[in-house]
Amino acid sequence: MKVLNRIRTFAAIAAGLGALSAASAWAADLKVGFITSLSGPVSSLGIPYDKGMKAAQAYKSEVGGRKVQVIALDDASDPSTAARNARKLIEEDKVDVIIGTAGAPGSLAIAGVARETKTPLISIANADLPGEEGAWMVTLPQPAPLMMGAMVEKMKQSGVKTVAYIGYSDAWGDLVYDALMKSAPAAGIKVVSNERYARADSSVAGQVLKIVALRPDAVITGASGTPGALPYLALQERGYKGKIYGMHSLINPDFIRVGGASVEGLLAPTGPVVVAEQLPDANPMKKIAMDFRAAFQKANGAPPTDTFSAYSFDAWLIYLDAAQRALASKAEPGTPQFRLALRDAIVSTKELVGTHSVYNFKPTDRYGSDDRSRVVVRLDKGQWKLVP
């Protein structure tokens, strides 16, 4: 009898351990891979993205009773490193989604890995891949044509007839220039230059000399962060007195600090979160934008002063919403089935209110923003002011 009782006891313990193991597997943490640029020339954007992710985790850290684990890596502003980081996160850490990175070239590099491994990518840089190439990604920053439309409208209202362009010699520079060329001529505005520079360049004197010689009514740039201040500094040095415009990629405290007086009066499009307290109460994004600010303050000990951190926060909101729906499919995190369910949930997101936009994605469209996602701001004594 004693032997029989011992056998029964061991069997009960084994059954209990098996049940516990099964329960642990069922309640496995969800894993998110986060890649940003904490060092290198894109770090003036990458660091705010990181702070935004910390705010997101302070806001909410579980889905359906399951904790969400974030594994973060620095890509040092290098697209090759971004791709290697993505592969490590997917193959070794078994993440179900990648959120990243700070620059468009890096996000495009990650997109290739995401497509190969069938892992969803929520890009927080403005990156676009058509068709099947981008089938596993969505992009949060507002598309360049949408934001450029607001700038061209302001140019036309101000009587601008000629505009010079200077931007990065990479994917973002191309996106902005293409958007300008599609909208400016229709508004009766002639684009007189297409000057380019690298993100790591320390001078754009030669390019700006060519621009000043053309005497354009206005100059608009396709740049971002700290290096985005270079053209405005050079224009000021050459005594340029025309109007200056930028894109939403410039809404960053380091840009203001480096640009100083040369960027005063700059007009740029941006997401509503930048001027949340100036928005009417009826704006659907005002409440969540203020919630973001509170979470950012809690996580980082200071209020947000940029637009980029809010993209990380919005990526988190989209992920949480999609993960909730993916879990309903009964697929387990860490499996190909769950990653597919998560991708399908992300690209079918409808009317999700974020800080920058009310997001609506389609399987065939990388972007989820519409006209509600843009406002125009003017830099006035170092502060962004809403332009009616």
UniProtKB/TrEMBL annotation:
Gene3D superfamilies: 3.40.50.2300. Residues 1-27 form the signal peptide. InterPro entries: BCAA_transport, Leu-bd, Peripla_BP_I. Keywords: Signal. It comes from the Bacteria. Coiled coil: none annotated. SUPFAM superfamilies: Periplasmic binding protein-like I. Pfam families: Peripla_BP_6 (PF13458). Residues 30-344 form the Leucine-binding protein domain. Belongs to the leucine-binding protein family. This is Branched-chain amino acid transport system substrate-binding protein. It comes from Variovorax guangxiensis.
